[in-house]
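Agenda item 2: benzoic acid complex prediction
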Amino acid sequence: MEEKQVVSMPRIGEAAPEFKAVTTQGDINFPDDYKGSWVILFSHPADFTPVCTSEFMTFATMEDKFAEANCKLVGLSVDGLYSHIAWLRTIKDKIEYKGMKDVEVKFPLIEDITMEVAKKYGMIQPGESSTKAVRAVFYVDPKGVIRTILYYPLSLGRNFDELYRVLIALQAADKFSVAMPADWRPGDDVIVPTAGSCGVAKERMESKNDLTCYDWFFCTRKLGKDQVMDAILKKS
Ligand code: BEZ
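Presented output:
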């Protein structure tokens, strides 16, 4: 009889599915080991492939920047531990790319030969590949809740400025109880809860001069870049 594959797709707002795994930095218990910090769990299709190499070098180079925003990184592919170790050593010893060299990947890379974790997280998408994980990105907050999910295909490397922007935007939205408009970057105006009516919007604008209402359902206010970054970045 044909065995039925259970495919689960975690969703935004749900608890991150739990798993234990072996990584290049020892065993981990996810997400419990990361409670209290943000964590980005991301998958790549395969070790010793060019797009993945460019991504790992970029992520490793930005690791401290993510750490300053209280965010840890965890990678995963369906390769084994010795493949991971050999690939990361090759990156460090041999690859010079776009000014990055001698790059040491210090964050854990999960071995998942059985695809157990990849399947649990919907990283195996058979229309794209049934033997490799797609480029998935899960943002998990300090309480272990999934807050954003991004998927990219095998042939497209991720934009790491965008990955960082999403992290800062999620944290700023939480800290200041606001929402972020299209293309928001720190320093741009943010969206405040709706005014309810034109009259209320007008009243609000008159009483608070940092507020702009485009209509009753669309009001923004100023939020300075320093205010955002001071609230998010850890002071060392
Ligand atoms: C890459 O990372 O270069 C890659 C991996 C799997 C399929 C295609 C490209």
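Discussion summary: Residues 19-158 form a domain with the Glutaredoxin fold (CATH 3.40.30.10).
Owner for follow-up: CH.
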